[in-house]
Design goal:
The chain is mostly helical. Helices cover about 60% and strands about 5% of the residues. Helix 4 links the parallel strand 1 (about 65) and strand 2.
């Protein structure tokens, strides 16, 4: 079977300004522009894009945004979308925005709504039914792709545990020496100060420990008077 021919971009189509894109989007979503906004644009306002953005705000334009996070995000967003479907408000959003893992679910919703005869109404009904829907069932089946076969003695469980333990040890080899070095640094400073004080004592210098009120002196509060004549 031959591969389908990709759609070709139309030729000699001029680039559109931002205001033109916003205007076409508003008309596609809400219908005709409000009379005052159309008058501003026709009158040659310096910022038609701001007028169109305000019109979108006044019209109650909303977007459903699904964040990223891999397969965990897809599973979390599935639950959120099912909740919106049960409330009957999933089909009221005008835009769908997804990032990374949220795109798994977002692409499924877009394709499902495009192919379903009833559009978003069928999608909402399928999300509410959940278990009886092949789309949701397929997604739920592959949510645990790291350990698809569960069980204490299953190979997937022990493979997942071994992978976690290996990564934990590799990270420990990086962080433990650094933490140990930071914790050892004060002891090295104290040892160095004690060594310097010992040399002064051997040369006949006197070292006096200061009281609590004078504890702001260098080297932890040691005061070294001049040697005897």
């Amino acid at each position: 079977m031959a591969a389908p021919t990709p759609p070709q971009a139309p030729k000699d189509v001029p680039a559109l300004e931002l205001a033109q894109v916003l205007e076409q989007e508003y008309v596609a979503v809400h219908g005709s522009l409000p009379a005052d906004v159309a008058a501003k644009i026709a009158g040659g306002t310096s910022r038609p894009d701001l007028a169109l953005q305000r019109a979108n705000y006044d019209a109650g334009t909303t977007a459903l945004c699904l964040s990223g996070g891999g397969i965990r995000s897809a599973s979390f967003c599935l639950g959120a979308v099912q909740g919106l479907a049960r409330l009957g408000i999933l089909g009221k959003f005008h835009y769908l925005s997804t990032v990374s893992g949220g795109g798994y679910l977002g692409s499924m919703l877009a394709a499902w709504a495009y192919r379903a005869p009833g559009g978003m109404a069928d999608v909402e009904a399928g999300l509410v039914a959940a278990r009886g829907t092949s789309n949701v069932g397929w997604l739920r089946e592959y949510l645990s792709y790291l350990s698809p076969k569960r069980g204490l003695f299953g190979a997937d469980t022990w493979t997942l545990f071994s992978t976690y333990l290996r990564n934990l040890l590799l990270n420990a080899l990086v962080w433990f020496p650094l933490i140990a070095g930071v914790l050892t640094l004060p002891h090295l400073i104290v040892a160095a100060v004690d060594g310097i004080a010992g040399k002064w004592r051997r040369r006949g210098w006197r070292c006096h420990k200061l009281g609590p009120a004078q504890a702001v002196q260098p080297f932890g509060g040691w005061r070294v008077p001049p040697p005897h004549a």
